[in-house]
Every structure is written in structure tokens, then in C-alpha cells.
Amino acid sequence: xxxxxxxxxxxxLTAGAAAVCAGEGLLLLETLRRGLAGxxxxxxxxxxxxxxxxxxxxxxxxxAALFVSIPLAAGAAAWLxxxxxxxxxxxxxxxxxxxxxVPSAVYGLFGYLAFGSAIxxxxxxxxxALTAALLTLPPAVxxxxxxxxxxxxxVFRSALALGASQERAVFGVQFAxxxxxxxSAAYLAASRIAAESAALLLTSGIGDAPPRxxxxxxxxxxxxxxxxxxxxxxxxxxxxxxxAGVLLMLFVSLLQALAAGx
Amino acid sequence: xRRLAVPLVVLCVLTACGRERPLSIVGSSCxxxxxxxxxxxxxxxxxxxxxxxxxxxxxxxxxxxxxxACSRALTPADGDLEAAVLALDAIAVVVHPxxxxxxxxxxxxxxxxxxxxxxxxxxxSAAGAIVVVGRESASGTRMAFEAALxxxxxxxxxxLGEDGIVRTAVAACxxxxxxxxxxxxxxxxxxxxxxxxxxxxESVKSGAYPLVRPFLLVSRPGAVSPAAxxxxxxxxxxxxxxxxxxxxxxxxxxxx
Amino acid sequence: MSRLWDRLLRAAMRLSAAAVFAALFLLAGWLFAAALxxxxxxxxxxxxxxxWRPIAGRFGIAAMLLSSAGCALCAVALATPxxxxxxxxxxxxxxxxxxxxxxxxxxxxxxxxxxxxGLVGMTCIVPAIDRWFPRRTAQSGGAGGLAAILVLxxxxxxxxxxxxxxxxxxxxxxxRNASRALGAARTQTVFCCLLPSLRASIGLHAGNALRxxxxxxxxxxxxxxxxxxxxxxxxxxxxxxxxxxxxMGYAAGEHRSALFAIGxxxxxxxxxxxxxxxxx
Lengths: 262, 256, 280
What we know:
Helices cover about 80% and strands about 0% of the residues of chain A.
């Protein structure tokens, strides 16, 4: 009886592990197989300028989004740490939980309404960046808050003892002590933005004109690598799409490695 | 880092200045390849944004686009607009290469798309249910296809967003039938001839091939900017026409 | 001077917190305002009719709502046990290099774009479904509910597996040692001792996964066929998020209101699910 139970449990565990390995293996191997083959082909060489433009767009958009989102997240995390109002703190945490569950298509709609139509930016990298900043705000706040809490509290108390004000102690000392965690949060947020498709389709649009200037490119519509992948599939160029997939895998793995290395 | 800030800002400002806003063309995804090719080589800088014929017309009316790329003839419902014919395009009906069918009558095609005929054996192929692949409702190609065949209530097995993905779907499914721009069809699918007429320059220009639609560049009447005029002139010129026919499109007779 | 700086920093902190509150209220409020024209005109038909024909002015989302909810629930039901069992198996029953490899692999794959899962689904899963169930996929050629469920499950697996793995790591070794000391075999330890302590985290991660699955648009668009019709495993259907992405570009007037109303419905659905973060 016990033997049977153990067998049955072992079988369940093996089945689960096999299912997960099969699924993830399928994803990885298919992408690598078709993507690497696609990268070597002539059509990939012809599409290289497009890939380059999309990579520039991705970097620009991610940079702009982090420029807005990380300071806001840091400020909110610091407020969560130092405020004495318990009810407000709980309210903010609930608010962040609610925001973190919103589907990215809804963020795209909001970005289109608020940043695209109301402010008048239309389809542009800046609209996409603002939308992406909003999207990554909740996870960034949680990650930075985690980093601050995990950082050594004694440094903060020593600073206070030496006469620093609360704000100086938090922003000057505690943030410095938590810097690796905050950088890791930034890299994770960047990888989240790079992998975003629905929200950016509706806000930064599709465009692969070669970028000709940082500020002017921000106001033009541009596809990031992920949106470009989706667009390639729609245009029937699945080989190019897989190639873009391989590039994205490299990009995201690099960001995750940078985050983990902190 | 601080030492780099000032030169960086100056660089950004310099690169942002002195740039004339490029011509904005928004619209049909079928026209995307041709428009991009034209935009690359035309002296007038143009920015092509795809998303569907209806998107282009909406953007034109709202002022977000200078020209709308429209892959069907304009109807009175579109309003008062001026259209310049860029090229003629044939809508090819495609099946999987393993499908033995070579030709189909327009009436039979209409019946297939309205769900009246559901099995390949009725058409003389091996038995199997027909997977009817269509386009989604914003598509100019779909509107042109349904208008030409008189389809009122289509029954689709799948509705896809662009020609390219229709080609992928038909190439992957032996029982599928789909329609797309003839310029987009390649060796992975087989084009059917309609009523015995296949897609050639003569059959398209003479009207013998029934599924032909114009590729239009639409503008608001009286509001054509000089940039738009320059682009239209380039597209109608010898170099533009050569680029368009390289893309697989058919050209109307050259204007005098 | 330093007092001024302190005041500025304090103001910055408060502003940031206020910005987060503002973001939520603006999001919900603006969507509601944009959706209002349609909701005032036909709220009942919107929610309960399955007839979505924008050209004819019909905006019924019942079919798409059932499709979104059904695919998301089935995908989570499929992916959660698989990820849980895999995390348990790899962490508890596998020799040393396997757990770290598993964790790094899952972390890396959790960051991949979901469109890639949709692409692999389109090129591998849809033809496979067509081959295995030729009679059922007669009309649709493989695209449909089953394909959407499998693609969503594929997308959710890495995040779920990583979550369960971390939850397992937070269970102290003393628990396992105590169980072994009492004479339990390894599988008994796993199922009778570790699994019950994971109950809370199962709910948490499954809730997160459900939210993500409900909101996924582009991956599902590539494999579900996009015909607006009542959901079923083997015929094409369309999800709510998919409609938003497909039609937003050209919608005007009431059609646009309808899409914002869909966004509102998605927002309400995801906010009803359990909170994703532990209360600190």
C-alpha cells in the first residue's frame, strides 16, 4: 500500500517535471532552431537596418521609461518606509497591488487616451515610455522597498545619531546602502518593458525609420523589438520573427544576469 | 558623468533642430512593402505607419496623417476625399500546395466563403472540411474581396490580421483556403485561377481577372501639402513605377 | 540651505506617493469616462449579448468574456499543478546542479515576451492540434480554445515554477529534517509535509497567473482564430484583450467607447482576484 502510494507520488512528480521541461524546452529549442537559422539567412541581412532601428527604439524607450519610473518608485518606497500614517501606508500598498494586476492592454488604452490623445503626443516613443513607466511603477516600488528593507539598518541609525535629518539619512545613506538592490530593480523593470507588446502597440506604434537624433526620435513612432516581432509575424515573415526572438532572448537574459549579479 | 551632461544635452538639441517634419502616410498593411520601398528611395522624406485601411482613413480625417493608404475603392460612406491611384493589385485566392484544386468559379468561391459549401469533395478535391481563412473587419482587402464577389454574411474559420499571416496559415494547413494580395503570394502557397483566368498583367488591366482593387493614396480635398505632392509625383514617375512593379503590383497606364 | 533640501526631499517623497494614488484613480476614472457613452446607451446589451458587429452598431461582449475567462481559468488550472509538481520534484528530489539550473532557466524564461509563446504556438501547437484532432478542427484548422489554453499555459509556466521554487526555498530545512527523522520517505515528506505549507503561496501565484492570463492579448491573437463566437475547444474564438488590440487603431465614436468599456471590464475582473503582494 505504502509502496503503491510512493510509486504514484513519484509518478506525479516526474510527470509534472516532464511537462514543464517539455513545454519550456519546446519554446527554447524552437526559437533557437528557427531563430539561428533565420539570422544566417539573406532576408535577415536585408532586415538588419530594421533590427538596428528597433533595438535603438527599445533602448530609447526603456531608458526614458526608467528615467520617469525609477525616481518615482524610489520616492514612493521611501515614503512607505518613513511615513507614520499606518492607514495611508496600507492604502498605498493596496493601490499598488491593484495597479500591478491591471492587464497591459488596459495600460495601452489608458496611455493612448491620456498621453496620446489628451497631451497630444499621438503615436510616439514618448507615449510608449510614459505608459511603460506607469506599467513598471508597482513592481519597481515593491522591489526598491524590498531592497531598502533588506539593506543594513544600522547605517541609517548611525546617520541619525550623527545628526543627519530623516530625509538625508534615507536618501543619502540608506539608498546608498541599498544601491545594488535598486540597480537590480532597474534591470528587472527594463527587462519587463522590453518584453511588453500590447501596451506599446497602442502607444508607440509601429515604425522602423532609422533613428536620426535622440530627442526627435522620442517624438516619432517606433517599434521596439517585441512589437517588431509581432509585426513580423503579421507580415508573414516567421523566420525574421524567430530571429528577433533570439535577439530578445539575448537582451532579456543579459538584463536578468545584470540584475542577479547585483 | 556630470562632465558629460552639457555636451550630451547640446548634442541632443542639435540633432533635434533643423528637421522638417516628414510626410506621414498611414494605412493599409498590404501596401506596406511598396510604400516602404518608395519612402526609402524618394527624395521626399516619408514615414509609413501601418495598421489597416480603416486606421489610415481615420488618421487622415483626424489630421494625424498627410496621406492615407487605402487598399480598396472609396465608397460614399468614406466621405469627401481625393484619391490618387498608386497601382492596381490583384487579390489572389490561395490554397495549400498539396491541394490538387487549380481553378475555382466566382460563384463557388462566394458559396465557400458564405458557408454554403463546407467540404473539399464538393469541389473535386480529396475529402476534408474546408478551413475558410479571412481577414478581420478593418481590412480593405476583405471589403474589396466581399464587394467583388457579393458576399453578404461571411462564415470564417479563422480571421487574421494581415496578408502575411494569412499566407502562413494557409501554408501550414492542407485544408485551408484564403485570400491575399497577389504581390504577397509566394512559393509556400498556390494561387488559384478564378473562372479559368489567372493573375497576369493583361488579365488585371483588362478586367478579365475579377478580383482587382486599386491601391490609393487618399488626401483631404484641397489640403494636399507640398510634401505630399512631391511624394505623389515621385510615385507616378518612372523610378516610382519601377519600384512598384518590382513589388509585384500592376501599373495603370502612365498619365500623360 | 540644508533645511530647504530636506523640505524638498520630503515633498518629493509625498509627491511620489500621491502620484501612485493619482495613477490608479486616473486610470479607473478616465477609462470609465471614456466608456460612459456606450454604457449609458446599451449597458445590458453590452454585457449579455454575444453579438459583436461594430459596423452594425452591435457591441455585445458575452462571447468574448466567456472566452477570456474560460481560456484563462483552464490555462491556470493546467499550468499551476505542473509548475508545482516540477518545482517540488526538482528542488526536493534532484541532485545538486539541477535545482540551480532550473531556477536560472525559469528566471530567464519568465522575462521572455509572451508574443514568442504565441509564435511557437502558431508554428508548432496549432498544426499539431490539427493533426491530432482532424475531425474536431474541421472548420478552424487547429486555431481555437485549446491552442489558446496551451499557449497561455506555456507563458505562465516559468513564472509559476519560479514562484513555487522561491516559496519552497523559504521553508526552513528543519521542517524537512524533522519529517525525515520521523521516518517519512522523500515523497511522503514532499506531499504530506511541504505541500500543505505551500497552500497560501499556491493561491497567491495562481491568482497572479490568472490576472496575467486574462490580460494577455498578442500571444492569444496569433492562435485563437479571432472570430467572435461562443468559446469552444476546437473552433476559433476571440478574447477581450485581443479585441482591444485588434480594433483600437481604427475605432471611432461608439466603437471606441465600447473598447474602453472592455478595458473597464478587464480592470474590474483583475481587481476582483486576490491581492498579489504580502501585507507587510
